[in-house]
Structures are given as C-alpha cells and as structure tokens.
Amino acid sequence: MAYVLFTSGSTGRPKGVQVSQAALANVLLSFAERPGFGAGRTLLAVTTLSFDIAGLEIFLPLVTGGRLWLATREIAADGARLAETIARERIEVLQATPATWRLLMATDFRAPRGFQAWCGGEALPLDLAGELVARGCELWNVYGPTETTIWSLIQRVPAVEAARSIGRAITNTTVYIVDDAGN
Predict the structure, then answer these.
(1) CA-CA distance, 123 to 99, in Å (whole number)?
(2) pTM to 2 decimals?
(3) What does 79-94 look like in DSSP terms, one character per residue?
(4) What pLDDT is recorded for position 91?
(5) Upper half-sphere CA count for residue 83 (Cβ side, 13 Å)
C-alpha cells in the first residue's frame, strides 16, 4: 500500500481508500506519457495534501526528473500571484480545479509557450475551456474518483467542443459505463 486517503465520496460517509503502490505508479507513468511530463519540465503544485490530486503533483516531477514548485496557500488562492509565479518560475504545468483556473483567468494571464493546463476535481465548464484555450493553454480535462487513484480518464481539449467529453481511460485502465442495474 502507498497510502490511505479518507473520502466521503458520493455516500457522504467517510471511508478509507487504500491506494496501492502499483496503482499510484500507473497514474504517474501514464501522465508522464500523456499528456507528457519529464525531465526538465516544471510543475506548480497548488493542491493541499489532504486531496489525492496532490499525489500526482508531488510524485510526478520526482519520478520523472522534473522540477516541482510548491505554492503557498496564499499564492494558490490569488490569481495575480499565480500568474506572477507561473511567469517568474517558468512553470510549464499547472493542475487545478475550475475554481482555481477562474482565479487565474480573472487576471491578464497569457499562457507561456508549451504551457499545459490540467483541469479536474469537478466538471470543466465550456466557457472556462474556451477561455483557457484562447489564452494559449494546452488544455487537458482529467477525471477520476479517489477509489481509482487520482485520475482515471483524460482528454485533450483543443477546442470547446472537446470539453464535452471527460475523456478516455489512462494507461492500464478500463472504464465501463453502466446503468442503475449494472448493465
């Protein structure tokens, strides 16, 4: 086991989710390939450690030879300071919720060349997708409940129309869409 993360999920009742080292390694290897992260790249971590998303932010740069820049709570909650940090530290990847992306979009932020915006944690609104793409971001929509180890689906969003999909399964993952009867 790599860790146990407590979540209430859709039930509203806390439960401990046991995440194996193999499952965590799979997410990291998958994201190193697609959307792509490796040596020499810099990721800005804005997620608090109590969320599973922080696992990808922390471990991906460490296992790929990349660079990790940890944002303070004050920076993560301030769009202008986020934009300033991205520019000053030459950040190439930011993974955030739509709420954090909206903070950044409230500034005059323009994505640096090759900047990847990974959006997850809640549904990606179409207007936000359009704004991120228009500002030069290589946008990726990511989805996954804690029980599947951080993210299980990923979708590049080159245009607003693509934001309607939550994506396809990451490496070594199978997704089933079923009705209430399990069919």
Answers:
(1) 10
(2) 0.92
(3) HHHHHHHHHHTT--EE
(4) 98
(5) 16
